Amino acid sequence: MLTKRQNNILKLIVEEYIQLAKPVGSDLISKKINCSPATARNEMSDLEEIGLLEKTHTSSGRIPSATGYNYYIKNLMDRKKMKKSDMEKLEIIFNNHQLALSDCISKSLQVVSDMTSYTSVILGSNSHDNLLKLIEVVPIGENAMTIIVVTDKGHVENKTIVLEDVEIEDVKKTVSLINNLITGTPIDEVSMKLEYEVKPIIGKYVNQHEQIYNAFYHVFTDFTDNNSVNVVGKNKFLEQPEFSSLEKIKGIYNKLDNKDILRKITSKNNDDSKDIEIYIGEESQIDEDMAVIKTKYKTKTDEGTIAIIGPKRMEYERVINLLEFIKENIER
Amino acid sequence: MLTKRQNNILKLIVEEYIQLAKPVGSDLISKKINCSPATARNEMSDLEEIGLLEKTHTSSGRIPSATGYNYYIKNLMDRKKMKKSDMEKLEIIFNNHQLALSDCISKSLQVVSDMTSYTSVILGSNSHDNLLKLIEVVPIGENAMTIIVVTDKGHVENKTIVLEDVEIEDVKKTVSLINNLITGTPIDEVSMKLEYEVKPIIGKYVNQHEQIYNAFYHVFTDFTDNNSVNVVGKNKFLEQPEFSSLEKIKGIYNKLDNKDILRKITSKNNDDSKDIEIYIGEESQIDEDMAVIKTKYKTKTDEGTIAIIGPKRMEYERVINLLEFIKENIER
DNA sequence: ATTAGCACTCAGGAAATTATAGTGCTAGGA
DNA sequence: TCCTAGCACTATAATTTCCTGAGTGCTAAT
Fold it and tell me: Would you call B159 and A253 a contact, using CB atoms and an 8 Å cutoff?
């Protein structure tokens, strides 16, 4: 249990460091809190021992450790109202009723990225939660046709394929069979059902069923591992002073560019009970100097995750406010 | 007109520099060409005067200038056959007949990016070349519906909208009116036609036509400025030694991340007569140290541009071979 | 418990040093 | 006239040295 003064000092250090990105020394503390530098040093040294603070080198000031940030967020951060300007910018988007939901989400996170200089990620609902609603085929030119797949959440995937020597009528027959037989199946199970429930039947009714079946099969396998990941402001982090080494930059870009990794990072849900989840440092799975704040949203028609990725030294209060605000507005 | 020896020296310098990224000095040349270092120096100094070579500082070796690269490509580069390994890797993709064309393209450029460490860009056909083929509406849940737009090239765009207090029947009527009235219109003209040819008519037949009209109008305006730009291997350039300054990196990322800029860069077609176009240095419009090699492809059903973006010091021969190979294979 | 005082540490920047990989130019030789 | 040996010169890049400033930890006194 920390003393009142220790709490004050920790809070001070976190907030100071978030703003200026420079280790905080005893002098500054002695001025802000009413005490001598020596006392401040003693307290800091204690806080370091508990693991809430760190030094960058033996004679440097202190910076918060990952645990320090977590403690701060849980116990010290005051949840003021949102900045007016933040709120106003987002409200413009949400008040525009002509925007589709997905546009609202991406536009609002675009705005957040611009305001904060952090990166945003939008992760669509995963393929298990999407049920096949409808497929459709549109002939394009000679032997080509576009296959369109729609899920109950309104996600659409399409693929143009070329089938030589196949009657379009046969394809249409296949489509209507699929629509009749397996509508409502979770997308990630469709290829299985296709094999066991559809293949035997089209074998009877459709000519060239081998070719046609294969084409559809491929469309669905592609769709499965393709749930949408949308990254906004991918290079915002370059603005932050802590990312000046080329090695670090490479590492981070590689993670942010890899949809699989990003999906893993944002989708893993350790604690379903919480609205907002925060992963700091190593826990972010990106870089020891980064942090991830994320939340799930759920509407009548869709669900997904939105996340903000920034330096460990993030404006937590602000970002949390922003995310909560967006979540609320989406869900309405 | 350059002498034989000058040509040899220029070629040597370009190829050496492409490989090692280090200015080439007279010693190396004197060894490879049969002459003394002093002669090499004289020749280099002449080549510099013509503008084919440059120095990085007063006492450095020489590097090719943008004009130097251009001269090299036009006159000196020998067009050997493709590297076997390059060809084999691509053939695996093109021989897989189950892949849709668009997948072939993106997969093959993915492979190229991986092999060469350059960035690839795929630019879809522009909205003027796409004609409206079909629109379709799929109801999703309560008041939501997904509108799907298909073009004659097989491009599909979709948007989920929410319309309160609107009968789905009215929406369907609107859809079939649009399909009857303006199918075949270039996508970038659809919103106009929508206004002048469709709006007056749905006004008569459809309830709540204001709302419905607005929704469709927005779908199409979004679609218009949305012709697909696909970037592969965006951070490959970090591998190159010439991009180690943070400022440069930021600048390049900003361009590569901005679809509008990228579209401008890759779509501008100075010279329609040529198959392959090359823009080096400033001309690349990205960075003075970068170059762009691009080509258009055209199939029965679709067309677009593929481009490779890399350092000025690119393996031109290899990349040209790769692009030509891909282009040919796409067009078949 | 707090604090003044002091010795100590380390990062970071400036200046000095050296090594090295090149150049340009001159003058002599084929 | 073309080539080349030789030499003085130059700029970078790497290494070292030195210095400063911002900070610490510890001890002893309040």
Answer: no
